[in-house]
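seq as requested:
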Amino acid sequence: MIEETELSDEQIQNAITIYTVGAERGLPDQAMVIALATAMQESTLRNLGHLGEANDHDSLGLFQQRPSSGWGTPEQIQDPVYASTKFYDKLETISGWESMPVTEAAQSVQISAFGDAYAKWEPLARLAVGLLAAIVNCETADLPKGAWTNPLPGAPIVSGYRTGERPDHDGLDLWADKGTTIYAASDGTVNRVRCNATLYGAGYSCDIDGSPEVRGCGWYMQIAHPDGTLTRYCHMVSEPLPEVGDTVEAGDIIGYVGSSGNSSGPHLHLEAHTSHDASSADATDPLSYFADRGISFSS
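struct tokens:
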């Protein structure tokens, strides 16, 4: 059961992900109410794996989507961003969903044996959407031109820049749950978006989790800033949202935390470079780089 005052960090982050994916698509709040009410009923906002004998067929994830019904692979369905995206994809194919009762719209997507069960979650889902809208709008509010912000607010450092244990580590690793929103650190132009992952010299997908054996940054992007410096964001869960040549502003949502490429778990590998070349030779300690711009990180 979900209680308003007893949500775990996992439940809160999953609710934020469901809301943010819908907001990024430009959908009205009603879509997010439907999605949240559905996830509250199906999983209590927990990213459920296979539950053995308690499993409903092969249902998985936030929305209990089934691989056998064409929702995706088990790994994809257990990616909160992917699962939310597929939910909204299906919702938007339903004619008149915007004016349907929440439970009817949810059932049209889910085709559940308990189609009326979503109705009881509507009041809490509407409350959550109101709160999440205020939080997300506050976090992504327009910042002054040239401002700097933390790309992953509140995330702790789990690995530093060029430490004794990792002398070739050209960035800072910030831990966060998969699907956590990543923000542009400052204004600039996107000069690279790429999947960079190989395994034993062969290409490797960035749309699945990597491992310590996989080489590369996974899904990553770079922002060239007007002061001649550059920031790089690695291991995203899916292709970054901006494209090469796009201009971004501080606080814009650019992607979501993942574990693609050379990674042992979800995190953001953040690099800072003193030129737009973004080579190891011009890499600089992100702690000092961001401190010079008024931004600190949690230890």
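Helices lie at 9-24, 29-43, 74-77, 80-91, 102-110, 122-139, 286-291.
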